[in-house]
Amino acid sequence: MRDASGEPRNVTIVHDHGIHEYPVRFCPCLDPETDEPVPEPIQLIHFGLWLGTWKRPESAYTILGLRDHQLLGLQAQMSTHDYFEYLHRTTDMVCPEDVPDRYRELITAAREFMFTRATKRADVEPTQELEPGVLAVRCPACPQPGINMEPKYEKTGQPEGDDIYTMEYLDGLHYTIDGNFQQTQKNKPMDEADEPLTLGAAYHANERDFKEFQRTRPREKKEPTTCHKFGAMGYSRYGGRVTGTVGLSCSRHMFTLPMGSVDLDGPEAFCYADWVQLTALRPYWKTLRWLAVGYDINCQYRIHFHERIRELQTRYGHLQSIPTDEFLFELLSAVGKFHLPAHIKACRFKFSYYYLRGVGMTDGEALERIWSILNSLAAGTKEMTPGHRHDVLNDFLGDMNVHKLHSIARTLAGRYQKARKQLSTMEETIQKLEENFTVDKIVAMQAEEAQWLADVRDLDKHKKLKNPYEVKEDKVPTTKELLAEIAQARSAEHEGSDAALNVLHVVFEGVELQSLREDLLDVIEENDESEEGQKTIEQTRLDFLSRLAEWTPAFNLVIQPTLDAAAKEVLSEWKGSTSLPDAFPLRGDEHLQANIKSKDERAKRGLPPLHDRNAKSVLWREIESVVIPLPSSFHELILQKPSMKTLVNWEIKVREGQAADALNDLRTGLIASATLKLAKIDMTGKRPTLRVGKKIHRKNNEVAAAAEEYRHAWVALDALGMTADEDEEGTTKSGKTDAPEPDLSVSESQEHAGASTEMGPSTSRRYCRLRKRDAVPFIMHDGRESMNRSKQTVSWIWENFGFAYKQNDPKYQAFLEDVKRVHWFRCSAMLARWREEVRLLGEETRRTVRYFGWFRGKWQAHRYVRLLDKCRRSYTAAGVGIETELWEAATRDDNDVEMVD
């Protein structure tokens, strides 16, 4: 019913298509429940309009328009000013200055609308003095007391399982701390008394309590640093009313923790991290017992942590934010994987997520990812008043949490599948690696590892703690020693070769000549035209031609007759057939995949390089035209003939030796190169650094040459039927990934030469295709760690350390023994982390299902209570639908995880 005699009032209506003034006449009818006129603001809300002012509305905003404004701010970080300018131009592109200016009112209306929507979603009244953290969206996979925790743990404080010490991490909280110096606030005149509408109820610690803390806190004593002087320790430059923020997030799922952020008014100091932990951990104070804390400067921060916490509780225990009960959590302190290499050597292994028990595959860098998204707001928030700034930041952080909440089931399911696959791979790797150790040695290393894991939890033992994950410095040989040992091992292995014209000698010499031919082609191709270079080429050429002239008659006498007989036999069987290739009796070059020209691309596929015949010298073409035939050069139909079995078997033995030599050189070269790189890390001065750089370059060239030599041997073994049948990804037809058995040297092969004359010995899985990704060193030093290393499998070339036992120098053999020991410790740690990851993901999945089930039950209970309230009833029904959908998604996507309560 309208009052026809009432005078209409001009109200500026701001909607998503422009800004216009309309005459509005308010209804004077009485509300049947209150027997009073319906307030003007409520009348506008009933018509889908939101108030600019609440006493006497003269401007209003459509709820759809405010919703668009909020979503554009969240998705595209559009500021209120930009949105209002857009409305200006939408209304009048020619004279936008004639459009009514309601920008200030829009700021207030949008802020109130944003707060009201948050309270509606949290099912609380939009009032002041809300419960701490009640508006925050919590992580469903992290422990939430009273909502999703394992029932026995929540009752008793003890996890399931017999070994509480090793399983306590399953019911602990994993979180990270970090500072952000981009989220500043300008030092300009503004309302100092402005408080956020979300006061203490969202992601910032209670602003009143924190303001009291900032006003009265004593000057902090700067603790002497035992590590590098990071900016986070108070050495960075800063300025403004707010110089940045310190925040907390769960480190495994990237959810910002409720009451987990505070503003800085100067450099980042320990007291801010202390305060934010006291406020954010309050909900867990009497339930959880174990915390895994990641912080860029944990090595320094943890030293006096408990003393500072007790002092804060004593001084500020009267404030609502600060719990007064004793801090009884057991802390596991770590440094994020990205920041860890910046620490000194003594810090790295004691605070590494790679080695600490219970962290799984956590990397400790969740907040860095959050900051990278949040910083897009900094240009706008630094201009806002304190309360408005926090309201906007809380809304944005809440939206980020909601995004992750909606996808948490798919995320956990995908990670669980990957973790199980990685765990299986690591179990196979450690099993093969342990074949290189005696049982007693493995038991001793396991005991040493267990003792280290216990001692690293105790900060008092850190000073004397030794690093089992790094090669001992006193055992690292010099480059000269490494080079001399390689040459000595090679010469000793080939010493005493029989010069008689027998099959073994002819095949062996033929393989040597093929390698020498490839080396000579490379030398000619890289010739710098210098006089010394020309002499080297000529000498190498004469040596090659001399050995070739001596070898050819022996080949014609020992091998050629057998090859001719086998070829004639094949031609007789295939007489009249056109199926034989043009290259017959030789093997074609299809297996070399000549269409792939790039040397790097061929290395990635495990293929030897091809020579480009274009624009080459006469000498190069002369050497390239030389053919050195061996059984592996001929067609498989010839090799299958019974008369060829002995020849094929002898070449297999020689090629095995060639491959073993190349692998030994490759492994030793990789270790030498890695050792030199470690020495270079702490080296100072231009000349020493340049000298070591040249040595590293030479070693890298040797590694590349050894890899090429192995690939040539592998191609020959493949032709002889020795290798497994692989696809392009290195997977056998049975579906298993390459898993080579220990390789044998030439001498070892010759020991068993008479054991079998059949083609294709039983050790056909001994050698695998060597791709570029396989020819890498394993990590011997914490300074070489990288963020994605945990997801990389250990190269198959390090599954056998037989090459270490062939070294004659005791010092070098001791070094390789230490390398082998370090490799075991690192692989064991990686295996343990993947086991923990599988268990953590299983428990997180169960918590997620409980979480959505709990909220579904909550909304269902409210649904029956609110039958008389139409608006609340409809929203509650929507809440039930959403939580049911999320619960069903969690149980569907995570069906591989056993759901046991």
From TrEMBL:
Any Pfam family matching the protein: CxC2
Region (Disordered): 726-766
Keywords, sorted A to Z: Coiled coil
Domain called CxC2-like cysteine cluster KDZ transposase-associated: residue spans: 7-93
InterPro entries noted in UniProt: CxC2_KDZ-assoc (IPR041457), KDZ (IPR040521)
Key word Transmembrane present: no
PANTHER family: CXC1-LIKE CYSTEINE CLUSTER ASSOCIATED WITH KDZ TRANSPOSASES DOMAIN-CONTAINING PROTEIN, CXC2 DOMAIN-CONTAINING PROTEIN
Protein name (database record): CxC2-like cysteine cluster KDZ transposase-associated domain-containing protein
Annotated source species: Dichomitus squalens
Biological classification of the source: Eukaryota, Fungi, Dikarya, Basidiomycota, Agaricomycotina
